[in-house]
Amino acid sequence: MPSLKRIFSIAHIFVVANFLGKGCCDDVCPHGVTNITREISGEFVYPSSGTYGANETKCWRIEVPKPYVGIGIIYHRFEIEECLDCECDTFSATDSYEDLRDGKCGRYSPDYLNYYNRLQGTMSTLEELDGQNVYLRLKTDDSIHHSGIKISFIIKSDSPDSGQQTFLNVSSGQISTPKFGSKNYPANFDWEWYLLASEGHQIEIKFESFELEQSEQCQNDYLEIREAYYQDPNLSEEIQGVFGAVLARPMCGTDSPREIHSAGNMVWVHFHSDSNDTTTYKGFKATFTSSESRTLSISYASSLVILVSLIIVTAI
Ligand SMILES: *[C@@H]1O[C@H](CO)[C@@H](O)[C@H](O)[C@H]1NC(C)=O
Ligand SMILES: *[C@@H]1O[C@H](CO)[C@@H](O)[C@H](O)[C@H]1NC(C)=O
Ligand SMILES: *[C@@H]1O[C@H](CO)[C@@H](O)[C@H](O)[C@H]1NC(C)=O
Ligand SMILES: *[C@@H]1O[C@H](CO)[C@@H](O)[C@H](O)[C@H]1NC(C)=O
Ligand SMILES: *[C@@H]1O[C@H](CO)[C@@H](O)[C@H](O)[C@H]1NC(C)=O
């Protein structure tokens, strides 16, 4: 899958979060829930080494900040003791706290999962979970213990209905909100631009003008930029951006983004305005150019991970 490998950048951030054991306490998560907040991508590992313990019930919540709408998960290790109906040890990842009771078990070694993810193409093995909260839970008994789980996750963007798209396969050009300079952008305007450069090139985007409604977490009107990718590496028409590595988080107000440089040769630009037509502003105008790649190669191993910034979350 050569086209996938350039999605990734090599900047990694490592954060170690312990299991705090705070939050709610009931029969689903008697020892509480550990919150993972403000992370837009990361790697989740439990336990960090060795095997998980006896009689454990650990719960985590990954908070999905607005205007993002969910997360995608890829498994890199899944070794949970197998029993009928998973009544021994069980792991669950779900968008509903109540559904944490229904988990999965079984053993898929890292080698097998790497083989499987590579065979399918990383994006086709992505498990999608929608909503503003994603819960993880591991429950174990006191018999056999295995090495647990390792997953990477990336936050999911909203995307407009198909048809509201522009595809630009040119080495330089300009994009803007409609009637830029003479009118404010319209309400309910949702559009995605795909900027495509030749293989081996990178894309640079410069903002000449930027004026959007300011709102908390940019929930109302925003512009966001991610790397684009082929959902199925064999079908180049199936291009997407909602799970691509984040180049610019949703932006609003007059905080004009700095220059954006892609790692790969395909970029997804997404503009969204809400239905309130009394709060539309001037909009944005940007130019883009592509140039030959400066960084030579990104290691093949990182192509299996969708992350720009890699956060390791472990628990004691
Ligand atoms: C985790 O988040 C939930 C929901 O916002 C909150 O009720 C709980 O107190 C948080 N726990 C910790 C340890 O911050
Ligand atoms: C695990 O829980 C079972 C049932 O409650 C108990 O009999 C056993 O002693 C516990 N084992 C450990 C190692 O805590
Ligand atoms: C992609 O194409 C390769 C080679 O033609 C094939 O082996 C592979 O199964 C295809 N992958 C998918 C997901 O269709
Ligand atoms: C863009 O077009 C050129 C030929 O004009 C082609 O070589 C290149 O692969 C195309 N890029 C993408 C991403 O489709
Ligand atoms: C639109 O935004 C304005 C200014 O924030 C606000 O006063 C008004 O209530 C909003 N209208 C709707 C329909 O939400």
Automatic annotation (TrEMBL):
- Which residues does the UniProt record annotate as the domain CUB? 29-156, 162-291
Tell me where the signal peptide lies. 1-25
Q: Which UniProt keywords apply?
A: Disulfide bond, Repeat, Signal
Entry keyword annotation includes 4Fe-4S: no
Q: Which PANTHER family match?
A: OVOCHYMASE-RELATED
- Keyword flag Repeat: yes
Protein name according to UniProt: Bone morphogenetic protein 1
Native species: Acropora cervicornis
Q: Which domain of life is it from?
A: Eukaryota
